[in-house]
């Protein structure tokens, strides 16, 4: 039996993680949950899974949560310290890290320092503090396994050869909802249109990142840290069907791809039960019904966010943390109606330009959060006209 803590249990990845626990109840048990809000759903999860420790973001939510509980009363903690406590419980074997944004950095770092296996679904953790996280895993016996479908696919494909035999990593992207849209109309893109992802059901922030393809740029930086691969050996191909989740090309010209249905339960199952492969009750892929798999190059005019991320990865140091934080704020401002869709990338680019002369190495979580805070403040102060 493997004991699991889930950070972000009420979000889409968290709920999929609990579905995996349900499917493998003889092998997996929930002992810790952490959330930012949604006390009603959290209370239902507590009653069903009976965790030992639960964390909420705000201390003010502790008593309201207790009042919702009926038969099971776990220890309830709060804040960053609470999430870290859930991630470092002595009996925890694996942690699913699905807290969105920089808030996920401290508990993941704590888990890796405690020698835990961490299934990372939060791109920002490695983008903002990749060197810190990978060093913590090496020095303390922690383990990082990717839960997002692209890096999970790469992890699986890399089992076919050694690191020295890898020519390049190929990340696939759906292309989002605007793959065919007229570029001249991008300023008129509505919030609802940007949230309407054609393949995946995701939270608002991730959906917008998919529409700009910033998510794929962040994944390049993540892959750089996960697989010790320079940016110029990490490529992106648009694959609208989202069936091939990513590929690895080896030096002999062989390309190994991982395919499955578009369901987050597959990579979550892989991360929690690795290295074993077990029979899963989830829907299987029927290639005869799909028939066609398309691949396209990334258009830099349509998706300028991708090149910004490559530049940040090549620069290194604090630049990826600044990219990530500026993007988070820009997305928030777009969703609030303060920016046009094209203003997201414009804000991020201007923040990166301001940081160009101040790039510094990141040697600690505190340094990562310092640059994160600076970039957020800068991104909030940049005005972009909303054109109607």
Task: Note down, in words, how this protein is organized.
The chain has 388 residues and is an alpha/beta fold. The protein has 2 domains: 2-146, Rossmann fold; 152-262 and 287-315, no CATH class. Helices cover 45% and strands 15% of the residues. It contains 16 helices and 11 strands. The protein has helices at 12-23, 39-49, 62-68, 79-87, 105-113, 123-140, 149-157, 191-195, 204-212, 214-227, 265-273, 287-290, 305-315, 319-335, 341-355, 365-380, and strands at 2-7, 28-35, 53-56, 75-78, 94-97, 117-120, 143-146, 166-173, 234-238, 244-250, 255-259. Strands 4-3-2-1-5-6-7 form a 7-stranded parallel sheet, with helices on both faces. Strands 9-8-10-11 form a 4-stranded mixed sheet, covered by helices on one side. The longest helix has 18 residues, at 123-140. It is globular and about 55 Å long. The relative contact order is 0.12. The mean pLDDT is 94.
């Amino acid at each position: 039996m493997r004991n699991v803590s889930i950070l972000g249990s009420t979000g889409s990845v968290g709920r999929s993680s609990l579905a995996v626990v349900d499917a493998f109840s003889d092998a997996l048990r929930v002992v810790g949950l952490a959330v930012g809000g949604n006390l009603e759903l959290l209370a239902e999860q507590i009653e069903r899974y009976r965790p030992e420790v639960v964390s909420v973001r705000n201390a003010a939510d502790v008593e309201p949560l207790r009042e919702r509980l009926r038969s099971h009363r776990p220890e309830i903690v709060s804040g960053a310290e609470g999430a870290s406590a859930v991630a470092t419980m002595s009996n925890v074997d694996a942690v699913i890290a699905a807290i969105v944004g920089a808030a996920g950095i401290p508990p993941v770092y704590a888990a890796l320092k405690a020698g835990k296996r961490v299934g990372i679904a939060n791109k920002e953790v490695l983008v903002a503090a990749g060197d810190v996280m990978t060093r913590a895993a090496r020095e303390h016996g922690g383990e990082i396994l990717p839960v997002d479908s692209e890096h999970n696919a790469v992890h699986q494909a890399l089992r076919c050869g050694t690191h020295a035999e890898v020519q390049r990593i190929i990340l696939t992207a759906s292309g989002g909802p605007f793959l065919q849209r007229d570029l001249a109309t991008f300023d008129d893109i509505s919030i609802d249109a940007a949230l309407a992802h054609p393949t995946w059901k995701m939270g608002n922030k991730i959906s917008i990142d998919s529409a700009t393809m910033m998510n794929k740029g962040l994944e390049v930086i993540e892959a750089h840290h996960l697989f010790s691969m320079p940016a110029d050996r990490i490529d992106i191909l648009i694959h609208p069907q989202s069936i091939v989740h990513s590929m690895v090309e080896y030096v002999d010209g062989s390309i190994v791809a991982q395919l499955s249905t578009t369901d987050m339960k597959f990579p979550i199952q892989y991360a929690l039960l690795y290295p074993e492969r077990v029979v899963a009750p989830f829907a299987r892929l029927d290639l005869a019904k799909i028939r066609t798999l398309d691949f396209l190059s990334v258009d830099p005019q349509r998706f300028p966010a991708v090149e910004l991320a490559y530049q940040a990865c090549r620069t290194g140091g604090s630049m990826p943390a600044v990219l990530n934080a500026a993007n988070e704020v820009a997305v928030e401002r777009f969703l609030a109606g303060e920016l046009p869709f094209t203003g997201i990338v414009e804000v991020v680019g201007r923040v990166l330009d301001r940081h160009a002369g101040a790039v510094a190495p990141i040697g600690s979580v505190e340094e990562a959060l310092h640059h994160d805070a600076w970039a957020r403040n800068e991104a909030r102060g940049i005005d972009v006209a909303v054109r109607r």
